[in-house]
Amino acid sequence: MAARLDDLDRKILAELQADASQSLDEIARKVGSSKTPVWNRIRKLREAGVITRQTVILDPEALGLEACFFVLIRTSEHEAEWQQRFLTTLRARPEVLEAHRLAGDIDYILKVRVANARAYDAFYQALISEVRIYNVTALLSMEEIKSTTILPV
């Protein structure tokens, strides 16, 4: 069930998503409130599970991770044991930024960030050595047009 948010909650969340390193004083000033009510709202949003964690966003290219692949996976295996091994394998691979189970012809899609095609091939070889996969299609992103972690609130 979705959390019930009022306008002040939404303004606070928008500010935190834009820059969570802002001080409480800065956020309070921007949302038209004072520090204590803002702090109380943030605490309640954490307790309600709306705010799950705070982190930093790194530039992958500045770290030499210039290649982004979207990996489409089809499997003929649907047993719980295979699925658990597959999920464990994905969670252990830092190159996998996102993994989604899909409806339709493709079973899973992965977002994989690596240095180059050679690094992707090493990832691919490691993946297929750990779990049996029926078909893998890798799509190289030529240009990232939009990428955000900001949810519409």
TrEMBL record:
PROSITE patterns: HTH_ASNC_1, HTH_ASNC_2. Keywords: DNA-binding, Transcription, Transcription regulation. The keyword Transcription applies. It comes from the Bacteria. InterPro entries: ArsR-like_HTH, AsnC-type_HTH_dom, Dimeric_a/b-barrel, Tscrpt_reg_AsnC-like, Tscrpt_reg_AsnC/Lrp_C, Tscrpt_reg_HTH_AsnC-type_CS, WH-like_DNA-bd_sf, WH_DNA-bd_sf. Residues 5-66 form the HTH asnC-type domain. It holds the Pfam family AsnC_trans_reg. This is Lrp/AsnC family transcriptional regulator. The lineage of its organism: Bacteria, Pseudomonadati, Pseudomonadota, Alphaproteobacteria, Rhodobacterales.
